[in-house]
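User: Can you predict the 3D structure for this chain?
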Amino acid sequence: MNRFLLTVLILSTFSIHITGQQLRIGPYNSGWMPVNSFQGNRVNNLIQIPFYLERTQGYQLNKNWKLSFSVSGVITNGNKNFPPEKIKFQFNNVTSTRPNDDGIIPSASNLQAITALIPLQFSETFLIPNSTFDLQLGTYFSMNLGYDVLVEAGAYLEEYRSWQNYTVNLKIDFYNDKYWFDSKQVYFDMQIWPNDQPPGGPEYGISVDPTASNVLLEFKTAADYANGVSKTYPRAFSTTSTTPYDVQVHALSNDLSSPTSQTLPVSAINVTVKDHQSQAQTGNVNLSSTRQTILMGNSHTTPKYFDVQYSTQAGDMRFFNKSYEQFNGTIIYSIIPR
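Assistant: Here is the predicted structure, written as structure tokens:
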């Protein structure tokens, strides 16, 4: 008797201040981060980083300057620590009061700003790894970088639900290969209180037709031993899934056993799976106690049916000289989201 088991098995604006110099940064927050949904949240331009030159005698800093940030200390509400990688920065915009002395207006491109989502982390992470924008300035100048802050969606937010704010402390560094120009702290508060239902995970399942739950292979004649035997079960099982998935098969034991303690290696049984509609083969394996993939499927919300054939090889000597009795084993089919 064969049993089939269903296994269900993740911005801001900067300002720069340079002690003893004229070019400064002065990062600040433009508000706070409320997370009122399991869909997460995004606050545009939450972190602002302004650069400014206050004096008129000018300042020159050529290309290859850098801007980075890091999380300063744990993100906590006093009771729980929020994982920093669930919060992300993303460049939003740059503005300036005028071009530099070469007549160039700053842009994401000539700043070489990272425009992809950047997860927060405790180690240094570059916002601008190597700028090609010359800070050649003969008179008053200011430039502002705006960064969006995004909190990742997911059911994980339930664990961090709290009316008490989490404080996110950041350090902003401005330097080049020769000089350290400025370093400033900035923070924002975050409150997590989702008022909707947490999202469900992917839905998937496998169903075995009752007529295919007991597989019987019989050796009755000399021809059966010479040619092997097979049994095909149309629409043996069906699958549904809202996500790509694999179907795997394995036996609970390496051997089939009989009431008299005789054994046959389960690897003597071959399993072939075909799509019932197209008859395209999806998998062909010799049974083993190790899981083997016999089907790789894409998402589909209506049932998809598959035929299964169990067979033995022609002239397989492992079946010879065995007493005429029934050998039993258990096969498990598993569906696993990919």
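The longest helix spans residues 222-227. The CA atoms of residues 276 and 306 lie 5 Å apart.
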